[in-house]
Design brief:
Layout lengths: L5 E2 L7 E2 L16 E3 L2 E3 L1 H5 L11 H25 L5 H19 L6 H25 L4 H16 L5
Antiparallel strand pairs: 1-2, 3-4
Helix pairs in contact: 2-3, 2-4, 3-4, 3-5, 4-5
Bound molecules: zinc ion (ZN) (2 copies).
């Protein structure tokens, strides 16, 4: 793949083909800092390793949100089936974890608070769609509530920072 010409984010007039290994911003030869894990921008070279974990770039945030919407939409029919199964607690937890992993990957495996929020909301929506009427009339079963909680917790755990 041909490297496209970029401009240093600190010196907009300078062309460069190098970008920071951590944040991906283009950096010129004067700004690049060699580190054990590749060339970095001065901001990231200064930070200890892992300090930027959980910070998503804008496109990763968009992908995470899209994955969240996808999980919520696909989850609606899936959860209706799961709630009718005898092993719904276990299956809900597994499905929630899978949904969380999907959103985590869409966000470049950063995890962190935003990924956790998106995962929890995306997982909660399908349950709410099916359980809201029962919650309103008070006929909700404890198992269904537990299934929802397990799925949401599992989806959140999949996005914790490692
Ligand atoms: Zn950087
Ligand atoms: Zn520069």
């Amino acid at each position: 793949m041909m490297a496209e010409v970029m401009y240093c984010y600190r010196h907009p007039g300078r062309e460069t083909r190098v970008s920071c290994a951590t944040c991906g911003r283009p950096i010129c030869t004067e700004c690049m800092r060699p580190t054990a894990v590749g060339i970095k921008c001065p901001d990231d070279a200064r930070l200890p390793r892992g300090a930027r974990a959980g910070v998503m770039k804008p496109d990763q945030i968009v992908k995470s949100l899209l994955a969240g919407v996808g999980v919520a939409l696909v989850g609606i029919p899936v959860i209706s089936v799961i709630l009718g199964l005898p092993l719904r607690l276990l299956i809900s937890a597994v499905a929630g974890y899978g949904a969380g992993i999907l959103i985590n990957r869409a966000g470049g495996r950063n995890g962190g608070p935003l990924a956790i929020t998106i995962s929890a909301v995306a997982t909660a929506i399908p349950f709410l769609v099916w359980l809201a009427p029962e919650i309103l009339v008070g006929t909700i079963s404890l198992f269904d509530i537990l299934a929802a909680i397990l799925a949401i917790v599992a989806a959140s755990l999949a996005n914790r920072r490692l």
